Amino acid sequence: MAVMQIKGMEEYTKKIKDLAKNEEKVIKTSVYVGAGVIADAVKAALKTLPVEEGGNGLPPFGTPERPISGVSRQQKGDLIDGMGLAPIKESKPGYISTKLGWAGYGRVKTKRYPNGVPNQMLMRAVEGGTSFRRKTLVVRKSARKAKQQAVEAMGRRAEEEIRKEI
Q1: How far is 129 from 90, CA to CA, in rounded Å?
Q2: Is the CB of residue 70 less than 8 Å from the CB of residue 59?
Q3: Which domain of life is it from (predicted)?
Q4: How far apart are CA 26 and CA 74, in angstroms?
Q5: Which of 126, 75, 83 is nearest to 101 (CA)?
Q6: Which residues have CB under 8 Å from 161's CB, separation 6+?
Q7: Phi and psi dihedrals of 84, rounded to 5?
Q8: Per-domain residue ranges of the chain
Q9: Rounded-to-integer distance, Cα 153 and Cα 155, Å
Q10: Rg of the chain's alpha carbons, rounded to an integer?
Q11: What's the whole-model pTM score?
Q12: Is the Cβ–Cβ distance between 62 and 83 less than 8 Å?
């Protein structure tokens, strides 16, 4: 917890006003640190996704009777490389946040996706499952496990930033 030594009410008022001027910077920096903890946990979980290869190293094909639970090596790499954090912003008054997500296209090209399968769509299929894929709760489990670490990291960072300001 940050500690201030103040002599007199005027100095106290000035310190509080100075801190209030920089509150957004303190919060954004803290949110970024917490989001990084969650992102690292999700990335670590992605690395543990089971690998299932179809013919010639292509993604496996499942059926409703025999659903798959893994991804190809290429898809796994694409999901890891395509993951990132959105810029930190005020989403609505009083709420500063960011989002974890996937961008870009994978290296696996199909007739339907000649530029490659969208990473966001693949991750949604992995996380939520489909008629031919078992769901694998990568994001939800990772975020839940890392939540306390993220909260603690945000608290430490906020205290560091507050100490700089006072």
Answers
A1: 32
A2: no
A3: Bacteria
A4: 39
A5: 83
A6: 22, 25, 26, 29, 30
A7: -165, 175
A8: 9-165
A9: 5
A10: 22
A11: 0.84
A12: no
Q: Are 58 and 72 in contact (CB under 8 A)?
A: yes
Two tokens, residue 7: 């002599």
φ, ψ for residue 151, nearest 5 deg: -60, -45
Q: Mean pLDDT of residues grouped by 10 in the chain (166 residues)?
A: 64 72 87 97 96 72 87 94 94 89 94 95 96 94 97 94 79
CA 145-151-152 angle, to 5 degrees, is 105
Report the amino acid identity of residue 42: V
Written as six digits, the tokens of 147 are 């939540």
Identity of the amino acid at 48 = T
- 97 three-state secondary structure: strand
Q: Token pair 């690292």 is at which residue?
A: 40
Enumerate the β-bridge partners of residue 118: 105
Which backbone phi and psi does 18 adopt, to 5 degrees?
Answer: -60, -40
Taking every pair of Cα atoms in the chain, the longest distance, rounded to a whole number of angstroms, is 76
Q: Give strand pairing partners of 51.
A: 71
Alpha-carbon separation of residue 94 from 7, 28, 65, 132, 160 (angstroms) = 32, 12, 49, 42, 22
Cβ atoms within 10 A of the Cβ of 119, count?
Answer: 21
